[in-house]
UniProtKB/TrEMBL annotation:
Stretches of the chain forming a coiled coil according to its record: none
Organism expressing this protein natively: Streptomyces lavendulae subsp. lavendulae
Protein's name in the database: Putative acetyltransferase
Domain of life, per lineage: Bacteria
CDD domains: NAT_SF
Alphabetized UniProt keyword annotations: Transferase
SUPFAM superfamilies membership: Acyl-CoA N-acyltransferases (Nat)
Claim: Transferase is one of the keywords in the record: yes
Length: 159
């Protein structure tokens, strides 16, 4: 997966983003959080109306930078990331997911790079992410990319 495959999400990507994000949450956190915990996360973060609305407002809400997607050679969305700058200079990754069948193919890395570039363009000098569980599989990914623990559920890095 090359960074060139990362693009701004279009309205037609909402269903794919919702599906991928829900599948990634279930795969990564199903055993850790259990059915009820995963159900709450999916309900809160993967609702199609919410994602459609978020795609429609990049730059339209204070601090919101929108969704990016990664597509394969056939144009199928295989990953997504959302982020913003809720505080001046402070980038926040709100969601990052890749197709669970396509892990370790550079999709997450390309998406994180795209989101980071967008945040830097808007003045971010640091980046943070909140995690649903301390022992989640995302910790290793973010640590590999220079994030360190700020709290058990928050990671951060300087840009």
């Amino acid at each position: 997966m090359l960074l060139a495959d990362v693009r701004t999400a279009a309205p037609g990507d909402a269903t794919a983003i919702s599906r991928l994000l829900a599948e990634a949450i279930r795969t990564a956190y199903g055993e850790i959080l259990g059915e009820i915990g995963v159900g709450r996360l999916v309900s809160e973060h993967c609702a199609l109306p919410r994602i459609r609305a978020e795609i429609g407002i990049p730059g339209g809400a204070p601090g919101w930078l929108g969704w990016l997607v990664a597509a394969d050679a056939d144009g199928r969305v295989v990953g997504a990331v959302s982020g913003g700058l809720p505080v001046a200079g402070q980038g926040e990754v709100y969601a990052l997911c890749a197709d669970p069948a396509r892990l370790r193919q550079g999709i997450g890395t390309a998406l994180l790079a795209g989101a980071t570039e967008r945040m830097r363009e808007h003045g971010a000098v640091a980046q943070r992410i909140g995690l649903p569980a301390e022992q989640g599989p995302a910790v290793a990914f973010f640590t590999h990319h220079g994030f360190t623990a700020l709290t058990p559920l928050r990671l951060g890095r300087s840009l």
